[in-house]
Amino acid sequence: MIKAKRKPLDEIFNMVKDYSRILCVGCGACTSVCLAGGQRETEILTQELSECFSQKGQRVEFSVFVTERQCNAEYLADIEDMVKEHDCIISTACGVGVQYLAEKYESKPVFPALNTMFIGLDRDIAFFEERCRTCGNCKLGYTGGICPVTCCAKSLLNGPCSGTNADGSCEVSRDVPCAWNKIYERLKAQNRLENILPIQPPMDWIDKGPASFIQSGYEKRYRK
Amino acid sequence: MTVIDNNDAAMNKIQKIISNKKGVIKLSLSACVHCSICSDSCFLFNSHNCDPTYTPSYKAINSIGRIYKKKGRISDDEYKEIGHLIWDKCVLCMRCYCPVGISIPILISAARSICREKGIYRTYDGNGES
């Protein structure tokens, strides 16, 4: 799932300091799960912002509403009336949710309260690790289920480079394991080393621009 | 004894949500013929041995239906039961299919919004209300 982290309070406050009726919209999906933008986190944010405004002697009206998913039009409809009653919107969704809100309510300033970090796994409660950069050309089948694009500091498709330390760590840091060393060890254990012998062609970086795609089988629905 | 918390601020917000969604809730509740066809399209229903409490229509009727019929004035325990039903037994994947055209996810999301006003929601770290 998408993992996000709250921005520093000062940064959020600076974005909204000139408004007096602020709607904080949380998201019930990924940012709730990563404990950054659900009901509780959104309420805490408004309390902290309220305190910032009080210290400046400003009186501000806050409303909180958590949509089930800010990346889905059906759920955004729930806040339509509330949007009209407020000067600006703070979103505690990922960057997608912020942009969808801004697109749907074009006349309202929409501010992000979170930094969207990555697509990652839940190692433990509130402890996340990046595992996918959504490159659009998955190589995991050949690399023992370890992503060289995400886990190699140089995103090498044909590794390792010559920067692997003797203990299997990466030259960028002793704390960072060399992804290609891990790939080699795992494939060796599975007797599949031939998987990484062919040279992989350069990646087709299809996600360099804003991409879109239609799931196979649904093409007719959108054909013009 | 059933205790009904009449916290005014929360109840006002709940009444507002009910009133905004009244049309769709009323129509959906009366249009549902209990055919249970929606259960086929629910992956949770299928992966839980066809437990009828995972039937999408059951989840909608026993969450927003219950809240709507009592105008939001149900006990905290009932709200907690509803919270369990709509968070633990539905992921809002929006894949449920109703031959009559009822949007079950919209009903469940309305129930979730109401539960949030009562402080009942999934917290994902084991701490909190729900």
Question: Could you characterize what this model shows?
Answer:
The complex is a heterodimer of chains A (224) and B (130). Chain A has 9 helices and 9 strands. Chain A is 30% helix and 22% strand. In chain A, β4, α6 and β5 form a beta-alpha-beta unit. Chain A folds into 2 domains: 117 residues, Response regulator (Rossmann fold, 3-Layer(aba) Sandwich), CATH 3.40.50; 76 residues, no CATH class. The model of chain A has no long low-confidence stretch (mean pLDDT 93). With 224 residues, chain A is α/β, with parallel strands linked by helices. In chain A, strands 3-2-4-5 form a 4-stranded parallel β-sheet, sandwiched between helices. In chain A, strands 1-6-7 form a 3-stranded antiparallel β-sheet. In chain A, strands 8-9 form a two-stranded antiparallel ribbon. Chain B is mostly helical and 130 residues long. Chain B has one domain. The longest helix of chain B is centred in the N-terminal third of the chain and has 24 residues. Chain B is globular and about 40 Å long. At the A-B interface, loops of A face α5 of B.
SSE-based structural type of chain B: mainly alpha
The total count of strands of chain B amounts to 0
Global morphology of chain A: elongated
CATH T-level fold name of the largest domain in chain A: Rossmann fold
In the CATH scheme, the class of the largest domain in chain A would be Alpha Beta
Give the % helix of chain A: 25-40%
